[in-house]
Amino acid sequence: MAFTASVHLKNCPFSYEIDPKIKKYTLLDNTFIQNKLGNFELSRLLEEIPNSGEGFLLKIIINKDLSGFKINITDKSGLRLVDIFKPGANPVIQQKFFFLMDSLVERDVFNKIERK
Known about the structure:
InterPro entries: Amino_acid_metab_prot_put, Lp2179-like_sf. The chain is an alpha+beta fold and 116 residues long.
C-alpha cells in the first residue's frame, strides 16, 4: 500500500488526511517511533477486553517528509486485513479506533472528514 495524502478505510464513516500543521515532534510525543527508513510508525492493539492480548492490530505509518500516510488494521499476526466497520462488527473496537484517531486530530496530526 502506497503513502497517500488521504485515507478512507472500508465502511468507515470518516476519511482522514494529513494536517498541514503536523510536526515531527508531535508524532514523537504521541508515541510514534521513527524507523530505519525515517518513517514514523504507531502500532496499537485494538482490544475488546483491555490487556487480553486479543484484538486487531492498528498500524499507522507517516512518511518521513510528512506528506503521506497509510493505515492498516489487521489480525493480530499482521498478515490479513480486517474490516472493523462492517455491519455487525464489534462497536467497542470501533470506539477505540475513533478515540485514538480523534486524539491525533486534536493534536494536528490528521484532519477528519465526514463521508456522505
